[in-house]
Amino acid sequence: MHDEFLCHVTAYGVCGGRRIGVPLGTYRAPTLALALWWLRDRASWIAERLDPGSATPYVPAGALVPVADGVTDVPGVLRAWCADPEQQLRAADELADGRMVRIATGDDTTEYELLAESVDALRIQRTLAGLAVPTA
Fold it and tell me: pLDDT for 1-51, tens place per residue?
């Protein structure tokens, strides 16, 4: 069982013709449950900022419009991931087995990426890379 997890949230967009990543948060989770909680919390946080809902008092009437046909509903995708017990269980299994979990979605301007990976698995990868000695 992996005991500690690194979690990251990044937004990617194009600026000056180059793909740029903007970190939106990082968390070192001491347990699997907290890693999953943090990923769900960040996904909900992004969804709420992109689509706060028409009943939100600080959003003027008419300021929110539905996404165009063919454009991914990023807040909807993130909310669906948070609410899907099967996807949560799959993510937990992947992390418990030492594999990285990546949730990514984007629209026509920005890609949002949520990552989590085991600290133990990262240490093992570094150790194995250091043990491999090139032969001449």
Answer: 567 999 999 999 999 999 999 999 999 999 999 999 999 999 999 999 998
Give CA separation, 102 vs 11, 17, 27, 51, 123, in Å.
Answer: 13, 25, 15, 22, 19
| Residue appearing with tokens 């992996």 | 2
Amino acid at 23: P
- Please check whether residue 21 is in contact with residue 10, taking contact to mean a CB–CB distance below 8 angstroms: yes
User: Collapsing DSSP states into helix, strand and coil, what is residue 38?
Assistant: helix
Q: Which residues of 40-57 are buried (b: 16+ CB within 10 A; e: fewer)?
A: bbbbbebbeebbeeeeee
Task: In whole angstroms, give the CA distance from residue 22 to residue 41.
Answer: 18
Mean pLDDT, the chain, rounded, equals: 88
